[in-house]
Amino acid sequence: MQTTLLVEDAAFFEKAIVKKLHEVGRHQIMVARSYEEAENCLNLPIGEPDLALVDLTLPDAPDGEIVDLCEKFNIPTIVFTSRFDPNTRGKMLKKGVIDYVLKDSPGSLNYVAELIRKLAQNPKIGVLVLDDSNVERDAISRIVSKHLYKVYQAASTDEALQTLKDHKDIKLVLADYFMPDKDGFAFLKAVRRVHDPEKVGVIGMSSFANSDNRVRFLKYGAGDFVDKNCSPEELLLRVSQNLDYIYRIEELNVMAMQDALTGLYNRRFLLDEASKSIKKWQASDGHKHWLALMDLDSFKGINDTLGHDFGDAVLTSFAQHLKKLARGNDVVARLGGDEFCVVFCDRSEEDVIEGLQNLLDSIQASPVRHDGEEHLMKTSIGLAELDPDHFGDALKLADHRLYAAKRTGRGQLVATG
């Protein structure tokens, strides 16, 4: 479990900070109100914290000695203080603290909370530093590492492109524009032929103030451009902001492709994205691909008599049953209303039919309970063999067989005719 050492002697700030830490998932908190208490906490045999949030001015350590204590125990540290002193700030940043944040507004506490939330995610995120200078590459990497990113290095354009290919966790590249072989512009052009800006961001870097280079980088697909001589804080803020853009686009894409109620893929994903991926599917000997369409029998009556909340509970329950059918590359989607689809990859006909028959038996033996009411679900299913190059034909045939199932009594599977 993640443990935070909070060193704060003001009761008001302690209470506010603890509340924010809980909001971002940091529930195990060691609170100290002095240097001595902090030292005692760190000497306890319960394990060291993985993060410290400290004030600089303490009753028994008024000059930032608490940072030295955290450094001694090798704990990543954020300074959160009311002391506005450029010299002290510079001194603390040189010691390697993650950030130096002033308690000058309610927004600063929100900034700290968001920073802590990101720090928990950053070790999974790759950042690539491209620079032909070993000294500058190492210096930039050390700065980026302060926020716990997984940092990769490359000394040339070719090496950077190979590193991107080998490490799918890289979300952002810091690229020097001036290199002796292929410059940053050549790298940027090559990257954009393979990776969209929404998938891999690029920040251009240079030691030379040249507005033309900045414009060229931005035109070729960079998200930002920074001076190598900028402060570490500015660089880390730009890294964070560019990654935030990528995360937001990813979030919007998920929302666009996912059904909000059931968590399944939606019609748009099935017809636009999944159908493209399906074209690459291969089948083993004796196996084929299959498409099953289904909708719930008499669902309108459930909404009319038991209410839409109960209807939502039925849809959610049915989605859970469908998820159990899927394995490997199988795709499960809600097409709209009470209509669902399952695409089976590389399965025998016997296996698919057995799974769908088990589904019919399972849902009829599992009544949905909601607000004291109980209802047995039933569904009709149409199954068709799927040729990856003719997705629409399989969809039409499965739909035809679905309605044949409804005409012949409902609550059953039709796989022929």
Describe the structure concisely.
Keywords: Nucleotidyltransferase, Phosphoprotein, Transferase. Helix content is 46%, strand content 22%. It is an alpha/beta fold.
How would the blueprint of this fold be written?
Layout: E1 3-7, H1 11-23, E2 28-32, H2 35-42, E3 51-54, H3 65-72, E4 77-81, H4 86-94, E5 99-102, H5 106-121, E6 126-130, H6 134-145, E7 150-154, H7 157-166, E8 170-176, H8 184-192, E9 201-206, H9 211-219, E10 224-227, H10 232-257, E11 265-266, H11 267-278, E12 288-296, H12 299-306, H13 308-325, E13 331-336, E14 339-347, H14 349-364, E15 368-370, E16 373-375, E17 379-386, H15 391-407, E18 413-414
Parallel strand pairs: 1-2, 1-3, 3-4, 4-5, 6-7, 6-8, 8-9, 9-10, 11-13, 17-18
Antiparallel strand pairs: 12-14, 12-17, 13-14, 15-16
Helix pairs in contact: 1-5, 7-8, 12-13, 13-14
